[in-house]
Amino acid sequence: MNRKGAILKFALIGIIFISVVLIGGVAYLYQIEITKNKKLQAQVDELTARERVTEGKLEDSKKKVSELMLKFQETKGRITAITEELDKEKSMRQEASKELEQIKADMEQQNFSRQDIENKLTQAQNDGRKLKEQLRVITQQKTELEVKIRNLESSASGVELGKVVVNSEVSDPPKEKNRVAEKNINIPVPELEKEKKGDSSQVKPLEGKVTVVNKEYNFAVINLGQKDGINIEDQFSVYREGKVVGDLKVEKVHESMSAAGFVAELKDVIKENDLVVQKAK
Questions:
Q1: CATH superfamily of 161-278
Q2: Of 207, 203, 197, 221, which is closest to residue 142 (Cα–Cα)?
């Protein structure tokens, strides 16, 4: 009995010890769990606080983002406006550059035109001086020619003028006149003598000769004038050795001589003492 009691006692003590150990372990574990729970709760509280802080920061960030978006939109609008202004300024610069190039081209053209005008003015001045010199020479030559014409007029009585003769009564006509007659140059001249032969009449054209040839101004002086019935615009054929070498047209008439012009090509053809025969009017 005692032995069983001792065993029971030892068993009971073991059970109590185990129970105490278990209770201690459970208490320890519970305490650990409580501590963990406290730590976790503290962490949760800390995380909650952090979350709240983060949410606050997030709200602030959202506000800042909104403000930044507004500022961005405003800045974007300003950038667009600045870009448009830059484009306008660039376009204006291009137009200004084109205008500047045009102005430069116009200035160059004006300079060229001014240079051309100055050259023309210089040329005109030179031409004016040349014309003055030519006028002086012409005046001098005119004076000399007038003197020569007056001298010729004063000595006209000693110059043999062409005579109007009816072909039928000329027994021995000059060789040149025969050749003229052979060419049928029978030109009527007003106020000349006529002779009838049967029912027809013929008048020999008025004849004269070249006394002076002016090659510079293309005219010749012939020994026929107002007293011979010569008028301005009368025309003459010039003969040499029976051949026509050119034509003359009366431009000025004096008492016993006339000045008749000719084309420039004849200035080296017509000579002094050439025969002139009046053309039909």
A1: Rod shape-determining protein MreC, domain 1 (2.40.10.340)
A2: 221
Tokens of 87: 């484009």
Measured between alpha carbons, how far is 124 from 127 in angstroms, rounded to an integer? 5
Who contacts 145 (Cβ-Cβ below 8 Å, separation ≥6)? 212, 214, 221
For residues 271 and 276, what is the distance between their CA atoms, to the nearest angstrom?
Answer: 11
Domain boundaries, the chain: 24-132, 161-278
Is pTM beyond 0.70 here?
no
196-212: b (≥16 Cβ within 10 Å) or e? eeeeeeebbbbbbbbbb
Cα–Cα dist 186/207, whole Å: 11
Cα radius of gyration rounded to whole Å, the chain: 69
Task: Assess whether pLDDT exceeds 90 at residue 276.
Answer: yes
Contact criterion met (CB below 8 Å) for 251 and 260: yes
Distance CA 206, CA 192 (A): 9
163-181 residue pLDDT tens: 333 333 333 333 333 333 3
pLDDT band at 202 (very low <50, low <70, confident <90, very high): low
